[in-house]
Design a protein that fits this description.
five-stranded mixed β-sheet, alpha/beta, 2 domains, Rossmann fold, about 425 residues
């Protein structure tokens, strides 16, 4: 409340467009029709089960991200293992998430729809780990005793571009081995060196897990631009961290959603949150990294100024990634749980510390947008504005009228209607959000 009182009268008047164009963006989006059948087939045909025999126990590692169809896929993997005479159970494979506690990680799985009732087997969770080997000329690696107790371990892992670094291996089963199976110890070790650790260690780490543990392989998921399951592939432990995983990463990149303009002067996000991205907003979408010692040329577009107007309810006050914005609102700051935000930032090391600072904060949406216009380095009439709900929903955009020609010439874009840019008595935006 003190912040709001101090900035209540602060204003930097600037011209805003009166109207916006509501735009629909289409993507090429292959989609798996029968997700359960595809997951079972990937497990059966991949060779992952080649060394398993009836009666063997299998730990199925499941992470903390919002993967499409996750409960269905996990249940299908579990049922296929059961049908082959195995004794599967589920373990959390999510680093330090869930407050770095076993109970917190079980609760995170439940929020994703993965419960003992939904998957039909027990969930075992502990944060205790044991060392399983060392990367040559590198750090030691760990595995949680919950997965070590099984005869075999299988991961359910999405493959996608990472939000913090670029390499031939990014988010996928090789990373999930080190940080998922390695629990908080693995997360701390990898994040301590920033992107360099991931770039150097993921491939050799995969070989340690293949050779020194019960890791059998991973059911790998690729999603399309609408966050739907596009492909399900099984990789054996010997294939994880190798050319096949790298090829799947390139395919995932090709299917990603993107903003359709090469240059944007002002990008406005209605909200950010951990349920949207680990960084609050997907850095691959906004083309902004802000990590020392990593190239800033991270994406395909040039964005001058970013404004964030709110936090999602599901983020529970965790404002990780707010530092990627240039301007925000008082309600974002007042909703922020700084304990959760700073714990996340410090655990992420160099990844999080430069992204958790508070941007210029204004009392309401209207004043925040006026500040973005003052800071975008071009006359108000020429400023190219793009509004999105969040970085998961870029199939619906609202853009300033000066982008009309660019929209009409773009093969994926269609103008739906013109809508007013309007604000309520408190200065917060009414339209276009109410027309979504």
């Amino acid at each position: 409340m003190k912040l709001l009182e101090e900035i209540q009268a602060l204003e930097f008047p600037a011209q805003l467009p009166e109207m916006l164009l509501a735009v629909h963006q289409r993507f090429d989006a292959p989609k798996v029709d029968d997700v359960a059948a595809a997951a079972a087939q990937a497990l059966q045909n991949s060779g992952i089960m080649a060394r398993m025999k009836a009666g063997d126990s299998v730990a199925v590692g499941v992470g903390s991200r919002g993967i499409a169809n996750l409960p269905v896929i996990v249940r299908s993997v579990v049922d296929r293992l059961k049908a082959s005479g195995m004794q599967p159970y589920v373990v959390p494979a999510m680093g330090s998430h869930g407050g770095a506690t076993a109970l917190g990680q079980i609760e995170m799985l439940a929020q994703l729809g993965v419960t003992e009732a939904s998957i039909g087997v027990r969930i075992e969770a502990t944060m205790e780990v044991k060392e399983i080997g060392r990367i040559p000329d590198g750090p030691p690696l760990c595995q949680g005793v919950d997965s070590m107790a099984a005869d075999h371990t299988v991961l359910v892992s999405r493959i996608k571009p990472h939000t913090d670094f670029r390499s031939h291996l990014e988010s996928g089963p090789s990373k999930m081995c080190v940080i998922g199976l390695g629990k908080q110890a693995g997360a701390i070790m990898m994040h301590a060196g920033g992107g360099t650790n991931f770039q150097r260690y993921l491939e050799p780490a995969a070989r340690v897990y293949e050779q020194n543990t019960n890791f059998a392989g991973a059911i790998c998921l690729i999603e399309n631009a609408y966050d739907e399951t596009a492909e399900i592939v099984g990789l054996t432990a010997a294939e994880v961290g190798m050319a096949r995983e790298a090829e799947l990463l390139e395919k995932a990149k090709s299917l990603m959603a993107s903003l359709p303009f090469p240059e944007i002067d002002v990008l406005v996000l209605r909200e950010i949150g951990k349920d949207i991205s680990g960084t609050g907003m997907d850095t691959n979408i906004v083309s902004r990294l802000m990590i020392p010692r990593q190239p800033e040329h991270f994406g395909t577009i040039d964005v001058a100024v970013i404004a964030v107007l709110d936090l999602t309810e599901e983020t529970h006050g965790n404002a990780s990634g707010i530092g990627l914005a240039n301007v925000t609102t008082a309600r974002v700051v007042e909703k922020t749980d700084w304990t959760a935000t700073y714990t996340n930032a410090v655990t992420s090391g160099i990844f999080g510390m430069f992204r958790s600072g508070v941007p210029i904060t204004m009392a309401d949406d209207r004043r925040a947008l006026q500040v973005t216009m003052r800071g975008c380095a071009c006359p108000a009439a020429d400023a190219r504005l793009v509004f999105i709900n969040d970085t998961l929903a870029v199939d619906r955009l609202w853009v300033s009228p000066n982008l009309r020609q660019a929209v009409e010439e773009h093969p994926r874009l269609e103008i739906i209607e013109e809508v007013p840019l309007s604000f309520g008595p408190a200065g917060n935006m009414i339209s276009p959000w109410q027309l979504d």
